[in-house]
Known about the structure:
By secondary structure, the chain is mainly alpha-helical. The chain contains nine helices and no strands. The longest helix has about 45 residues, at about 80-125.
Amino acid sequence: MNRASTLIAAVFLTLAIGCSAVAQTPLTPEQMELVKAQIATQKAQAIYYQGQLELARKQAEANKPKPYKTIWDKYTNNDPADVFESVGVVFCIIVVLLILFTTYRAARRDQRDMRFYEALKRFGDAGSPALRSTAAGILAQMGREPAYFDTALDQLVSGLMLEEHPAVQTTIANAILGLARNDRQSVFARLQQAPPHARERVGSILGI
């Protein structure tokens, strides 16, 4: 910008000197034409550099950093573009939070499902009474949830019919009684579905 200003000043100085020289010394027609051509060239350069100055000024204005606006500033602004942008940002945040919440719940449910089915697997381990006893306690605990109640009750009743180890029988019986505290009607209905000899055996173990 300084160079352009200097050049414009030089152009006007040249024009002034040229006009003074023309006024003091008579010129031939050829010289007059040459002076006119030089003056026209200088004017063109002056116009060009003035345009460059204006362009540089506009670019400086365009590159000037805009003041920071919060989402609330954009929302309360009357500019539709700012309002739409702020609403879009809030919507995206809500969607991301919903996705994270849904993913977290699904992951938690998967972990609980894995724990439940692992307990079922251990409950069927014929070689380890300790594992069966521990698994019966886990099934009783998780069976309190509606999603696992029916499966846990069926497995515990079936296991009690087949179990021969006294300590494991006691653990399974306590697990069934624990489920009965939550839903006595469903537990006794399931026991009524067992064969008579199995029902008598389960009843004797449970003390009912």
